[in-house]
Structures are given as structure tokens and as C-alpha cells.
From TrEMBL:
Domain of life: Bacteria
Keyword Magnesium carried by entry: no
Full protein name: PTS glucitol/sorbitol transporter subunit IIC
Family annotation (PANTHER family): PTS SYSTEM GLUCITOL/SORBITOL-SPECIFIC EIIC COMPONENT, PTS SYSTEM GLUCITOL_SORBITOL-SPECIFIC EIIC COMPONENT
Record flagged with keyword Transmembrane: yes
Transmembrane segments: 22-44, 64-84, 145-165
Keyword list, A-Z: Membrane, Transmembrane, Transmembrane helix
Length: 175
């Protein structure tokens, strides 16, 4: 009998936790995203979408900048997950590669700029706890993490763009 009571309590407890998680999202990240989206769209309207598009085209003309500077700025200023909206300023063939670069950078930036992805700070803190226990400084770790992240997003962006262009051509799409 006691087993059935614990089973029933555990079963309903699972849904209560789901409800608590949902309420946390509704009162936490969802309003933040709505405000960020509204602010970014208002800024784009004030400055002018064509001006923003021109600036984005100029700053992403070269692969090196497109898959290093552009995603770094997106993640730094808009944070995760709003950073991915920067992709709307790119041509279709570059959007998947930009997304791949930006999503791959939300962890490496955390050591220097925790505001960019506070939800995943525990990953960096877990690694840094071991480094601290060994008596090493966290500064060099954070810088290395950042620099390796930039190299990785550049490689991922280039490879993803090449794959995307090939797939688009194979499907007869305009590139």
C-alpha cells in the first residue's frame, strides 16, 4: 500500500515539477526574450532596415569576419538565445553557417563575459573549479577558452557554408 502511495506522489510530483519549470520560463526567459526582440526590432526600425542590412553586408563580406567578429558581437551584445537573430541580415546561403558559429560560441565566451550565457555558466565553473584547486589563475583559462572558441567557430562557419552551398546547388537553388 505504501508503495502505491509513493508511486502516485512521485507521478503527480513529476507534473508539479514540470509546472514549476513552465512557470519559471514564463516569468523568466520568455519576458526577457520578448523585451529583447522588441528592443532590437525598434532599433532596426529607428536606424532603418536597409542601413542595418548594408552594415551587415559590409561587416560580413569576408568569411574571416563573418564567422569570427559577427557571431562574437552577436553573442556579446544580444546574448544566448537572442544572438541568433543577427542571421536575418545575411543571405540565405550564409544563415546556417552563422547559426552554427554563433551557437558554438555561447560557451567559450562565458569565462570572460558570463552575461552572454549565464544559464550555462555551470560548465565553465565546473572546469574552473578544478583549475583553481590546482592553484592556477582563471584568467589564462578564460582567454584560451575564448581564443579557441573563435578558431572553432571560424572552422565550423566555413565548413557549414561550403556544405550549405553544395546542398543548395544540388537541389537547383539559387546561390
Amino acid at each position: 500500500m505504501d508503495f502505491l502511495v509513493r508511486l502516485a506522489e512521485g507521478f503527480i510530483g513529476m507534473f508539479q515539477e514540470g509546472g514549476n519549470t513552465f512557470v519559471g520560463l514564463v516569468t523568466g526567459i520568455i519576458p526577457l526574450l520578448i523585451v529583447l526582440i522588441t528592443a532590437v526590432n525598434a532599433f532596426i526600425r529607428l536606424v532603418g532596415e536597409e542601413r542595418i542590412n548594408r552594415l551587415a553586408r559590409k561587416s560580413t563580406k569576408y568569411m574571416l569576419l563573418r564567422y569570427t567578429l559577427f557571431p562574437v558581437l552577436a553573442v556579446f551584445f544580444l546574448t544566448n538565445p537572442m544572438a541568433y537573430t543577427f542571421g536575418k541580415f545575411l543571405p540565405e546561403k550564409q544563415k546556417p553557417a552563422f547559426y552554427d558559429s554563433a551557437v558554438s560560441f555561447v560557451h567559450p565566451i562565458t569565462g570572460l563575459f558570463p552575461h552572454a550565457n549565464p544559464a550555462e555558466l555551470f560548465v565553465y565553473l565546473g572546469i574552473s573549479a578544478g583549475i583553481t584547486q590546482l592553484g592556477f589563475s582563471l584568467g589564462p583559462l578564460a582567454i584560451r577558452f575564448f581564443l579557441v572558441g573563435v578558431i572553432v567557430i571560424l572552422i565550423r562557419g566555413i565548413v557549414t557554408e561550403i556544405i550549405t552551398v553544395r546542398m543548395m546547388k544540388a537541389r537547383g537553388m539559387e546561390v
